Fold:
Amino acid sequence: MSRAVAIEVSHLGKAYDKIRAVDDLSFQVYTGEIFGLLGPNGAGKSTTLRILITLLHPTSGSAKIFGLDSVKDADRVRQTIGYVPQERAIDRFLTGREHLELLADLYHLSAEEASTRIPQLLKLVELEAHADRPAKTYSGGMKRKLDIACGLLPDPKILFLDEPTLGLDVQSRLRIWDHVRAMRERGITVVMTTNYLDEADQLCDRIAIIDGGRIKALGSPTELKVGLGGDLVSLTVREQDRVEALAAAVKTLPAIRAVMTKPNGLDIRVDSPEKALPAILEAANRLTCQLEFIDYHRPRLDDVFIAHTGRSIKDDQPNEDDQ
Amino acid sequence: MKEYWQEIRALTMRWVRRLSREKFSMLFTLVQPMLFWLIFFGNLFQRAADMQVTQASSYISFLTAGVVVMTVLNNGLAGGVDLLFDKENGFLERLMSTPIHRSSVILSRFIFVMTITSLQVLVILGVAWLFGVQPVTGLLGVATILFIGMMFGVGLTAISMAMAFSVKSHGDFFSVLGFLSLPMIFLSSALVPLAAMPGWMGFLAQFNPMTWAIDAVRPLILQGWTEALPHVGMVIMVMVVFDALCLYGGARAFRRAIG
Structure:
C-alpha cells in the first residue's frame, strides 16, 4: 500500500546556544495515521512538535506539512493544523463555549460556521452540559476534552497533541484514546508526543523513539518488537556469585540469541522458548545454580526502548518542562 | 483587514471578560489609586504641604495631576501581567498556533489597557471634582489629559510586555515591577514640585518621563491653556521618543519570544 505523505521532516535540528535539543531528525508521517513521538522528558519530542506547529524555527533542516514549509509558509500551515497543548493551557476564567468562540474568531470562521460547529464539537466531546461554566471548575479530563474540541475547531487535516493523557486518571485516559481513534476514523492525521509506553503501544500506528534529540528507532509497535528479535527469558539467581558462570554456560546453548548479565541474574533473548527453556534450566541444574525466579515474555515496548536507548524510560526524574 | 479586526475584537473581548469575572480585583484596581493616594494622602498632607511651594489652592488639587499619571504608570507597568501568565501556562502558544497576525495579541492588550486606564482617569477626575478640584481648561482639557495619559501608557505597556516576554519566571517580573514603580513616583513631580526637592532628587526627576507628563497635566487642571500649552507641546515630543524606544524594545522581545 503506497501512502500519501502528510509531514516530511528532513535533517531537522534545533540548538539553544550550545545545547542541541534536536539533532538531524528525519522522518515521514503518512496521512490518516496516528504517529507517536515517544521519549523521556527532555528527549526533544516537544521541541520537534513545536517546530511542526510553526512555533519554533529550526536551526537546520526543514519540516514540510502537506508540502508547506513550517517557516516560510507558516501562516498557511497554521490554517491546516489543529493543536492540543498540555492541559494547563486553558483560560480558567472563560467558559468552555467561550474558548471555542474565541478560537473560532482566530480561525476566521464566519458567525454561521461557528454557531453550527461549536455545538457539534461540544456534543462530540460530551461537554454540552458544562459548556457555560468557567473552565476553572473543570476536572482534568474535562479540560482535556475541551482542549481536543479546540484542536478540532478549525476542521484540521492534521491534529497535534502534546502529551494528551499526562496526569489523567485511567478512565479519562481511555476516553481520550477513543477520541483520538475516532479522529483517525474521520481521516485526520494525528501526531502526538507521549512518554507512556502503553499509550504509544496501544494507540499509535507508528512511533519514533526519540532520545537525546535523535531518532533511535522508527516503525509500528509490532515491527519494533519483532525487530528486537526473539522472546525474553529473565532469570533471577539466588547466589549472585554464580551469575557469571551461568552466563558462560548459557551462551553455548542452542537457540540463544543474546545474553545480558545483571547483578542478580540474566536477561536472555531466545529464538524459540520451547527449545531454549529446558536447556537453560538444565544448565542451571548442572551448575547447581539455584534459580529464584523465572520470567518469560514476548518483547514489550519497554524492551524496545531499553534496547535502543540503553535505559528505561522511567529512569529519569519527572520534569514538567520538556524543552 | 476584516480578519485582522475579527481577531483583535475577539482577543480584546477576552481581556474584558477576564476582568469582569474577577470582580474583586476589578474593584480594587479601580478604587485603590483614588482611595489611597487622592483621598488619604491628599487630605492627610493638606496642612503639612506649603501652599507657597505647591502653588495650588489645596494639596488635593496639586496632587490630582500626580494621581492621574500614577494611575497611568501602574496600569501600564502591570499591562503585561496577563500575557506573562498566558506565556507561562501555554495559552499564548495556543493563540500563536492559530493563523492570526502576530501583532493582534499585542494590539488587543494595548486597546484594553488604554481603555481601562482612561476610564480610571475619568473616575479620579470625578472624585477630585467632589473635593472641589475642577479642571480649568474644561472638557477639552480633560480630553488632552486622556491623550497625554495614553501616550505615556503605550510606552509603559510596551515595557511591561517586553518584560513579560523576557523574564524567566513571574517572580522576576514582579520584583522588577515593585522596584520600578515607587522610585518612579518619588522621583517625579507627583507629590512635590521639582523646585522643592533636594537638589539631587530634583536633578534625577528631570529625566523621568513621568515628570514631563505631570507638568503638562497639572496646569491643565490648575492654571489654564496659556500656561499649559508649552508643556503639552513638550510632553508630546518627549513621549514620541519614549514610546518609540519602548515599542522598539517591546517588538524585539516579542520577536525573540515568539519567533
